[in-house]
From TrEMBL:
It comes from the Bacteria. InterPro entries: Lysozyme-like_dom_sf (IPR023346), Lytic_transglycosylase_MltB (IPR011757), MltB-like (IPR043426), SLT_2 (IPR031304). This is Lytic murein transglycosylase B. PANTHER family: MEMBRANE-BOUND LYTIC MUREIN TRANSGLYCOSYLASE B. Residues 1-22 form the signal peptide. The keyword tRNA processing does not apply. SUPFAM superfamilies: Lysozyme-like.
Length: 329
């Protein structure tokens, strides 16, 4: 009798539905914060987050960023003939719009184009990951940078619908949750994206005016100097002073760097504020004076190699455009 009782009890337990886990770790607190800040419905927020999945491929991707490569390898990713030619074609096709936006924001158009070239090959590869999956995975399951990505996830949930290219659960982007041709994170969409075409929506996936103007506005708001230099080669002498450079913040004048043994290979303003970057090229180290506009590019991506790739792609594009225009005269 006793045995039959325990067998029946076990069978009953197996037949009862098991309560589902309450979403992702930290989801309840996140939903409470977003609902408090925005008045959005917690049930709707929970449904969005419940539909997001932790993706191991995202955790794998963030562990092997391209910026871990040496400059000689990194440069080859972005300074290819195909990317340069596509950039020249893109610039020429949209030159009137680019020149208008460049003048409006004080940013050289070739740098707007180069950002799109480096980030998404001019909109051809904007990313295959669901943005919600990416930010949930990195914000709630990736301790090394959880604080940053959780903040981006919270911002995404708080953005008004008219600042997104479509329904939130349909958005796709990079493994880090960046969206659109310019790969804007949610915080950048909130702070720098603009409705250039005036349709009442910011669409960084389908509206070229919004895309270009948002990149230009990002640069302008971070201190782009209209007509200012970006980078120039330097040649150290044998007694050049070794320098420890933590980031790309301009901190010495060109004149000071010259006094320490770094000679510019082109004419520069001796009083211009600059930094010195060293890149490991195939034939040995390269030394570069870098300026405020180089620093601004590193606000888009903190890697000096990224900023140099954008700079060199921009120069290759504008040189190609100028050559074609000269040949057509």
């Amino acid at each position: 009798m006793k045995g039959r009782f325990f067998f029946a009890l076990a069978a009953l337990c197996c037949a009862m539905p098991v309560a589902a886990q309450a979403g992702h770790p930290g989801q309840q607190q996140l939903v409470q914060e977003v609902a408090k800040d925005t008045g959005k419905d917690p049930a709707t927020l929970n449904a969005l987050l419940d539909g997001a999945k932790k993706q191991q491929s995202i955790l794998d991707a963030i562990s092997r960023p391209a910026e871990a490569k040496p400059w000689s390898d990194y440069r080859q990713i972005f300074l290819t003939p195909a990317r340069i030619e596509a950039g020249i074609e893109f610039y020429r096709e949209h030159q009137a719009l680019l020149d208008k936006i460049g003048t409006q924001y004080g940013v050289a158009p070739q740098y707007i184009v180069a950002i799109l070239g480096v980030e998404t090959f001019y909109g051809r590869n904007t990313g295959k990951y669901k943005v919600l999956d990416a930010l949930v995975t990195l914000g709630l399951y990736y301790p090394p940078r959880a604080a940053f990505f959780r903040d981006q996830l919270k911002t995404l949930l708080e953005l008004p619908d008219n600042r997104l290219a479509g329904p939130l659960d349909s958005l796709t982007g990079s493994y880090a949750g960046a969206q659109g041709w310019g790969q804007f994170m949610p915080g950048s969409i909130r702070d720098y994206a603009v409705d250039e075409d005036g349709d009442g929506r910011i669409d960084l996936q389908n509206s070229l005016p919004d895309i270009l103007a948002s990149v230009a506005n990002y640069f302008a708001k971070h201190g782009w100097v209209t007509g200012g230099p970006v980078a120039a080669r330097a040649q150290p002498d044998v007694a050049a002073k070794p320098l420890s450079v933590k980031d790309s913040t301009p901190q010495w004048t060109v004149e000071q760097l010259e006094a320490w043994g770094y000679a510019p290979l082109q004419r520069l303003d001796p009083g211009a504020s600059s930094s010195l970057q060293t890149f490991q090229a195939a034939n040995g180290p390269e030394y570069w004076f870098t300026f405020q506009n180089f620093y601004v590019i590193t606000r888009y991506n903190r890697s000096p190699m990224y900023a140099m790739a954008v700079n060199q792609l921009a120069q290759a594009i504008v040189d190609g455009v100028n050559d074609q225009e000269s040949a057509a005269r």
